[in-house]
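We now fix the convention by which a protein and its fold are recorded. Here is one such record, which you should read through line by line:

>
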Amino acid sequence: MATSSKLAKIIKIRAISAIWIIPIVTAIVGLWIIYSHYTDRGTSFTLLAKDASGIVAGKTVIKNRSVDIGIVDEVTLSEDFEKVVIKGRIYNDMEPLLKNDSIFWVVKPEIGRDGVTGLGTILSGVYIELASGNDTHSFKNNPFILSDNPPLSDPSIKGIRINLESDQNGVIPRGASVMFHGYRVGNVETSEFDIDSRKMKYQVFITKPYDALVTQNVRFWKEGGIDLAFSSSGASLNVPSLDILMSGGISFDLPDGSKLGAPAEQHAVYKLYEDKKSIQDSQYTEYKEFLIMLSESISGLVEGAPVEYHGIRLGTVSKVPFYTPEMLNKTFILNQKVPVLIRIEPDRLSELVDEKIDIATLIMDEQKNGLRASLKTSNMFTGALFIDLDFYPELKNKYNSKLSNLYGYNTIETTSTGIAQIQAKVMQLLDNFNNLPLNNTMTEFNKSLASTQRLMNSLNQIMASNEMQNMPGDLQETLRTLNETLKGIQPGSELNKQMNESLQKVQQMMDELTPLLNTLNDKSNALIFSAPNKKDQEPKAKGKK
């Protein structure tokens, strides 16, 4: 009888030992702590600075409106060792403040135009201030520039930024005021000199709602000096505020008669003019050029001087003196007349006449009727001159059409007026007086006195004779009257002395008047300001030049 047997299967059961629960939980907690640590650090960013003065990793905080929003983690040098690289982070709940156009700067004790700032950092140490921007794009984590100075305008403030260029002397400092009608509407953010263009360049910021005042036709000019002006209505003195007087400023406005124009665009470029008076001339861009040849001294005539007709401004002096290579080859011009280039601006007549005028043709035609240009004094205190256009009937038939165009320019003939004309008349009078035979007159006068003396001697003998008593009474009275008259003009008498003194004074006055007129011809304001000293002419031998 056979027996059967079955083999039992052995199954191994792998169970996790309770001892492994503790390490697993510890690892999970550790991972959570690490995750929480990095997620709670906030957003990291990089700052580039010239130096790290006062900035310490782990201690220097980042603030916004005196509230801590981050901290500096690391301070190192760049790979090329030329800049300082500062690693910082913003706390999680402050991340919305960090934008692509945010601005960072170091706050430390400083004395500036607004007084003493940053005194709190003396005890707490310097810190980094953050000004949030307006950019709505996602954060790109590009490096920021750490500035040593706070921004003059918060990036969150709305307004318009304008770029200005100036080729004038003088610098307007950063922080100076930008004004409209004397009211501060912005400030100068940057002020630097561009070597390539050799111009001063400024960036100004005008806050909202005043940015609406800036249009395409506005003009900007410098403020800051004391303006003392003399005119026919008297003297005027304009003194700006102490802030403008000390640091300067910029004003803007529309020139008189100019249209408003379209609103300006961000970072539009404008020219910065020297003063408010200059902006009026800037709107006259169309002009006709004329050449005038002056025989008088041009001392006091400057570029920008007005060209007028009966007090109405028609144009501007463009170049004084004005020489071209062709002119310099003609030496007689330097010996006789000085060329001056002027501009006649037709738009200045737009308020007086409705239709467009061909001013060039009009001026050339009117010269046949006696139209001439001349130098006149606009201000006796400063000696300033201007070009005056007027009609002179006596010159109506003396127009030379061959001189209507010189060196490629339409030419306006000139005439002498004012002091030059007065001088010419006085000099002519002096010449006529010098030509008088004064010496012969004095000789004849002395002969007459001698004859008078002989007559008086004869008359005295007659009056002392016995025959005088036998003459009629009327004849005796006539002889006595004649004797008294002759005594009054004889040498040594009072009348004779007065006549001699008068003749001497006239001669002396004429001698002194001649150099005065020559001085006034060289400098018209010499009666107020001293004239330049001239070197005495050295005598030369005959035949030498």
Observations:
- The CA atoms of residues 99 and 139 lie 6 Å apart.
- Residues 494-522 form the longest helix (29 residues).
